[in-house]
Write a structure and sequence with these properties.
single chain, alpha/beta, Nucleotidyltransferase, domain 5, five-stranded mixed beta sheet, 12 strands, 30% helix
């Protein structure tokens, strides 16, 4: 079978691990949603073994797939997790999540930061593009000409200084003040990164009302799943 024909048949199981829920769906050979999304709540505290079991359980409910893409709210490099704040467990330091999942699921696996996975579904691959995800905490990813250059994750559900844009801050200061804080962040990030485009995703992005500023675009929460296709098709994403 030719390489082109083989690639055309590749179906991707995409998994979006968030601070409050884990979602997964099957993507067809063109990166389109090919199944209903499954969703399970993320445990308040979890170990690597518990995360593996959760993903294995969800994957078993999905149609046949050829490869797996996972986005997690933590620090990741070459499929190895170095920090996963949402778990509140230090056992994830240098945890080879990609290799462990590959053994469990019998398929090739790539793992990246969840903001990076959101971004892959949205970016053009030209210039400086930044992605932020507003959820339990704040995730960020920076791309330069389509190459992931950096990503960062704040601590979820901690005191406000640690997560000033997450769920805890939203509940504490209210929607109006929270939205102003987020919109102020747009300006701060432009000054820091000189981005050409900023994409805003995550579950709490829906609370941003009205038009977005110039160069800022809100993206659908499904981006956390859809980015799994480009994680494979765009080659090496750290």
């Amino acid at each position: 079978m030719s390489t082109k024909r083989s690639r055309a048949r590749q179906r991707t199981l995409a998994i979006d691990v968030g601070g409050s829920s884990v979602k997964c769906a099957l993507l067809d050979a063109r990166g389109r949603m090919a199944s209903e999304q499954l969703r399970e709540e993320t445990p308040a505290r979890f170990t690597p073994a518990q995360l593996l079991a959760l993903i294995e359980r969800m994957a078993a409910q999905m149609p046949q797939y050829d490869r797996v893409a996972v986005g997690i709210p933590g620090i990741v490099h070459r499929d190895v997790v170095y920090s996963l704040p949402a778990s509140r467990s230090r056992a994830f330091k240098r945890f080879e999540l990609g290799a462990r999942l590959s053994d469990l699921l019998g398929a090739r696996v790539r793992v990246t930061n969840d903001a990076a996975m959101h971004g892959l579904a949205a970016i053009r691959g030209e210039g400086v593009e930044m992605v932020i995800t507003l959820g339990t905490g704040l995730g960020t990813a920076l791309f330069i000409d389509g190459v992931l250059s950096a990503h960062y994750q704040t601590l979820p559900d901690q005191d406000e200084p640690f997560s000033p844009y997450g769920d805890a801050a939203l509940a504490k200061i209210g929607l109006r003040r929270w939205e102003k804080r987020v919109r102020d962040l747009f300006d701060q990030l432009r000054g820091i990164t000189n981005f050409d485009r900023l994409y805003v995703g995550g579950g709490n992005a829906e609370f941003l009302r009205g038009e977005m500023p110039s160069r800022v675009k809100r993206i659908d929460s499904a981006a956390g799943i859809l980015g799994g296709y480009r994680l494979w098709e765009w080659g090496d994403v750290p």
